[in-house]
Design goal:
mainly alpha; two-stranded antiparallel sheet
Length: 146
């Protein structure tokens, strides 16, 4: 298939494919006229790269997975280098989760402090719609036919 078709099927652009080629992640074959051609293996490789990027992997971090696919491993992640990248990413994500928990605790504490400083205490929270709540509180029916 030509570059435009591959880009469309992979959900990307020809420009991106040329960039991947320049980085050595994608290898195009050439016709006699110099047109790039690709096959289903290239599409599978691109889908692997896109999936990893959707998970937050940097482009360079996808290289071991690409190499693993090229070595004949169907999932692209059954090679030691791919597993090492997974381990680094999990450790990175664990660190980010801990940072987010700490920030969440700080923001929660700030919220409690700020609410306590309100002149009449925190505003009451009501799960019901305003008109419905007012109607029930005053004993008056709302337009909904209560």
């Amino acid at each position: 298939m030509r570059i435009g078709e591959l880009a469309e099927r992979a959900g990307t652009t020809p420009r991106t494919l040329r960039y991947y080629e320049s980085r050595g992640l994608l290898t195009a074959r050439r016709t006699d006229l110099g047109h790039r051609t690709y096959d289903e293996d290239d599409l599978r490789l691109l889908r692997q790269i896109r999936t990893l990027q959707d998970f937050g992997f940097e482009l360079e971090e996808t290289r071991p997975f690409v190499d693993c696919l090229r070595a004949g491993h169907p999932a692209g992640d059954a090679c030691p280098a791919s597993i090492a990248v997974y381990r680094r990413k999990v450790a990175e994500l664990d660190g980010l989760i801990e940072q987010l928990r700490a920030v969440r605790a700080q923001v929660g504490a700030q919220l409690l402090r700020a609410e306590a400083e309100l002149p009449h205490g925190p505003e009451p929270r009501c799960e019901l719609g305003t008109e419905k709540a007012i109607g029930k509180a005053t004993g008056k029916a709302t337009e909904e036919g209560e």
